[in-house]
């Protein structure tokens, strides 16, 4: 888990998975899986891809706060390519809510993700723009709160 969170190289993570193939399915506290930890830590596209190949069903595992790996990526420094990879692995993840009713779009808006990320999430599930969290905040609220660009705000209106 520490290698995934700490940004270890792809070679190191590959070696660890080869040495301990069962580790990819172990639960690790709040992070739940290595895929969660890597997504939370903003790991590289190649690392996320390696972890998905090692255990494809990890994409559907939720951690204690009901967050999916897509939620974790949307709330971290994950790239557009990484978020796209996660969506291709499980397109329905875009509809999942965490324990505060945040969808991945809400999480991305709150974290100030790029226009391209917001567009990708909306293209995958247009109705996400209407979904509010536990406190009634929509993606538009969260985008405004995080200081999103006028292009992002226009997309959400």
Topology:
Elements: H1 2-5, H2 10-19, H3 34-40, H4 45-54, H5 69-74, H6 80-89, H7 104-110, H8 115-124, H9 139-145, H10 150-156
Helix pairs in contact: 2-4, 3-4, 4-6, 6-8, 7-8, 7-9
Describe the 3D structure.
This protein is an all-alpha fold. It has a single domain (2-156), classed as Serine Threonine Protein Phosphatase 5, Tetratricopeptide repeat, CATH 1.25.40. 50% of the residues lie in helices and 0% in strands. The protein is built from ten helices and no strands. It has helices at residues 2-5, 10-19, 34-40, 45-54, 69-74, 80-89, 104-110, 115-124, 139-145, 150-156. The mean pLDDT is 89.
Features:
single chain, 157 residues, mainly alpha, Serine Threonine Protein Phosphatase 5, Tetratricopeptide repeat, 10 helices, elongated, Ankyrin, Espin/Espin-like, Ankyrin_rpt-contain_sf, repeat
Number of helices: 10
Instruction: State the major sheet.
Output: none
Q: Approximately how much beta-strand content do the residues carry?
A: under 5%
Under CATH at level 1, the class stands as Mainly Alpha
Which architecture does the CATH hierarchy give at level 2?
Alpha Horseshoe
Provide the structure class. mainly alpha
Calculate the mean pLDDT score and round it.
Answer: 89
Total beta-strand segments: 0
At the fourth level of CATH, the homologous superfamily is Ankyrin repeat-containing domain
* Distance between the ends: 39 Å
Secondary-structure element order, as H and E? HHHHHHHHHH
- By CATH, the topology is Serine Threonine Protein Phosphatase 5, Tetratricopeptide repeat
Taking pLDDT < 50 over at least 5 consecutive residues as the criterion, the unreliable ranges are none
How many domains would you count in the coordinates? Answer: 1
Can you tell me the overall shape? elongated
